[in-house]
Design brief:
CATH class of one domain: Mainly Beta
CATH architecture of one domain: Sandwich
Membrane topology: Single-pass type I membrane protein
Largest sheet: 4 strands, antiparallel
Oligomer: single chain
Protein name: T-cell surface glycoprotein CD3 epsilon chain
Structural class: alpha+beta
Helix content: 10-25%
CATH topology of one domain: Immunoglobulin-like
Number of helices: 1
Distance between the termini: 102 Å
Radius of gyration: 42 Å
Strand order of the largest sheet: 4-3-6-7
InterPro entries: CD3_esu/gsu/dsu, Ig-like_fold, Phos_immunorcpt_sig_ITAM
Organism: Antrostomus carolinensis
Subcellular location: Cell membrane
Number of strands: 7
Length: 152
């Protein structure tokens, strides 16, 4: 058997699993005068509480850590589903609008002041030759004469 806990605004209602006899309630070591099956905590401050109810030799205990607030609104499943669906539809609508408006702008040449003309692409100049690998020219063979292979 389990406790039944109902939370509404700052009111917490706890129903003891015991059904017979007079029920003694105890909250964090303090005994209560209430002898009914339901115990109501008005203006609960969201602090954790150890709750126990007993009747004769039977005793049930529970740790209650309920967050409550005065200005909260409860939403049913249908309302939450509707909110999420509407948000997704709006997001996809904006995404489609941005896609179609940006798609048309790709083919146009920009006319801003800092842009360069998009005519013929400029070719890069050839790389500067490395002096270590210059080709041998006529009349310079003596510079490379010591590099020829020697037979052993």
């Amino acid at each position: 058997k389990e406790f039944l806990v109902e939370i509404s605004s700052t009111t917490v209602t706890i129903t003891c699993p015991l059904t017979e006899g007079s029920i003694a309630w105890e909250l964090t070591g303090k005994k209560s005068d209430n002898k009914e099956r339901k115990y109501v905590i008005e203006n609960h401050n969201s602090s954790p509480v150890n709750v126990s109810c007993s009747s004769g030799s039977e005793k049930y205990e529970m740790y209650l850590n309920a967050r409550v607030c005065a200005n909260c609104e409860e939403l049913d499943t249908l309302a939450v589903t509707g909110i999420i669906t509407a948000d997704l539809l709006i997001t996809f609508g904006v995404l489609i609008l941005v896609y179609y408006f940006s798609k048309d702008r790709k083919g146009r040449a920009s006319t801003s002041a800092g842009s360069r003309p998009r005519g013929q692409k400029m070719q890069r100049p050839p790389p500067v030759p490395n002096p270590d690998y210059e080709p041998i020219r006529k009349g310079q063979r003596e510079v490379y004469a010591g590099l020829e292979s020697r037979g052993f």
